[in-house]
Design a protein that fits this description.
Number of strands: 13
Structural class: alpha/beta
Shape: elongated
Strand content: 5-15%
Distance between the termini: 45 Å
Strand order of the largest sheet: 2-1-3-4-5-11
Largest sheet: 6 strands, parallel
Order of helices and strands: HHHHEHEHEHEEHEHEHEHEHEHEEE
Helix content: 40-55%
Length: about 350
């Protein structure tokens, strides 16, 4: 694009030197916050995208697609469950694998910016100027920055609600998945005292799961809580353990089921309940969400809602590459991928009992 804004335009608009603009993107901590914000505001207003290869960006010839993902590794994960490396694979790893698989099929490479160190602007600087298009997890990059980037390269949003109408978007049926799981606990196991453990960061996916939980309670004629019973600061095994200890210490009757917003917390709960001498599922049922490989190998195996994480990554890559190779396509795509309730021993079902997919119409 011959009229695309340049680093010179940003420098002139913000009243700083070209070197300062460069430092804002290459080493943001070396620039005073007020100056850094002035430069970033000018760049947003102009629609400037920092580029490691401006010629490749303009011609869509880098042969690389990008993924912006926060570092979601569980700091509590270790080798306690054995030597099977696959068992500790998390949500982000599965999406990366799916994207890599699809990219490789089309002869593309995948560039990953998997850390928020330095702020979201540094993620944009690392990825957007070096790729033909990129996928980004919801709430990883500010909306105003995504608007700027989307003028120059295709963007696919992953997870969460659709926030920008003109961008492609892929999510999973979070609400229906949690509804089906909670309904199974209520209708098939006759449980009534359920608690939901969510997250403190107001994750849109967790919010949708909580709404599905509420839907099932409402349908069963039970009290419907306004908020999760507990919110964990991090959705990790350690926080799942802490939440479980807090619930066990509460006065009054114990819950009959702990419904966790993800598998990692549920796994932490299983360990804590075992240490406390509480039997699962005879005394308390435990469920998770995601379907990470670890859910299959813990004892008892975890009942969960399995979401198609690899498929999400593959479809994101396919959409990006289609946008690159068919730039005339205009209608944005919005897809909701189905999930499946996987019933295992932790809720009282046999290990082979898998539920049907969601979709209540």
């Amino acid at each position: 694009m011959s009229d695309a804004p340049t680093v010179y335009d940003v420098a002139e608009r913000s009243g700083v030197s070209i070197a300062t603009v460069s430092r804002v993107y290459r080493s943001p901590d070396s620039v005073r916050p007020a100056t850094r914000e002035k430069v970033l505001a000018a760049a947003r207003a102009l629609g400037y995208v920092p580029s490691g290869s401006a010629r490749g960006l303009a011609s869509r010839t880098t042969g690389i697609i990008g993924l912006c993902f926060p570092d979601m590794a569980d700091p509590d994960a270790d080798s306690e469950t054995g030597d099977d490396e696959e068992a500790g694979t998390l949500y982000s790893d599965q999406i990366i694998r799916g994207m890599e698989r699809a990219a490789r099929r089309h002869g593309y490479a995948l560039l990953i910016a998997a850390s928020l160190v330095g702020g979201p602007e540094s993620l944009v600087a690392k990825v957007a100027g070096r790729v033909d298009g990129f996928a980004v997890l919801a709430r990883t990059v500010p909306t105003e920055d995504l608007e700027v980037i989307s003028r120059r390269v295709p963007v696919v949003m992953l997870a969460g609600p659709r926030e920008i109408d003109h961008m492609d978007h892929i999510e999973v049926a979070n609400r229906d998945g949690e509804y089906q799981l909670t309904r199974h606990l209520l209708a098939d196991h006759g449980l009534r005292r359920l608690v939901f453990v969510g997250s403190a960061d107001e994750s849109p996916d967790v919010g949708a799961r909580f709404e599905g939980y509420r839907d099932a309670l409402r349908e069963a004629g039970l009290p419907v809580p306004e908020a999760p019973d507990l919110r964990a600061p991090l959705m990790t095994r350690a926080e799942g353990s802490r939440a479980t200890r807090a619930l066990l210490d509460r006065p009054g009757p114990r819950p009959e089921a702990l419904v966790f917003a993800n598998d990692q917390m549920a796994v932490g709960a299983l360990h804590t309940l075992e240490e406390a001498g509480v039997r699962v599922p005879e005394d308390i049922a435990v469920t998770g969400f995601d379907g990470i490989p670890l859910s299959r190998v813990v004892r008892p195996p975890l009942t969960t809602v399995r979401q198609p994480m690899r498929r999400m990554g593959e479809e994101a890559a396919e959409l990006l590459i289609q946008r690159v190779t068919e730039p005339e396509r205009t209608a944005p795509v919005s897809r909701v991928l189905p999930v499946e309730v996987t019933r295992r021993r932790s809720c009282g079902c046999g290990e082979a009992g898998a539920g049907s997919g969601t979709g209540r119409g």
